[in-house]
Amino acid sequence: MVGSNGAGKSTTLKAISGLVRIASGQILFNGRRLDQTPAHQIVENQIALIPEGRRLFPYSSVLANLDLGAYTKRARERRKESLDYVFALFPVLRERQNQMAGTLSGGEQQMLAIGRGLMSRPTLLMLDEPSLGLAPIVAEKVLEVLQKLNREGLTILLVEQNVHHALNLSNRAYVIENGRIVMEGPGKDLLENPHVKTAYLGIV
Q: Is domain 9-200 in CATH 2.60.200.30, yes or no?
């Protein structure tokens, strides 16, 4: 999902997560209505949000932050399996599991935030600007990991400032302006759209 600042991208993710209430309409996931469901129950419905800015607990260890992601009963039962998977995905987190989260680099903190989300064993992983503030090479690595997760069967809803990368990676993309979806289709098709080129890629 791409769009300019203030278009409603983050609000959409927060609404799905139960962090803000919608004024009208419904939010459905796998046939189940979510818009009247408390946020903690939405996590139990296998939906996880990686918020903008990562929102880690900086004075807790890497391992403690990961454990917080596995607080639901279903996730706790498979904690070790999930932890092994996250450490295989991000080996640096295994190396630094006893280090305070706030002392990690920006890229490592983003890896930790994604890892914490994966610990809840979601079927839908939502990410809000995961490359924000990261060096280009680190941002590209994070997006490659997301692509790998998607290939393994995890559904990902991505809000991303790097429109070119986001559309290039996406199976399906949505352009949101002033709270409304104005365009949708395969990501690579939207890359060729004249309006997207002009408004979001700076190509005249």
A: no
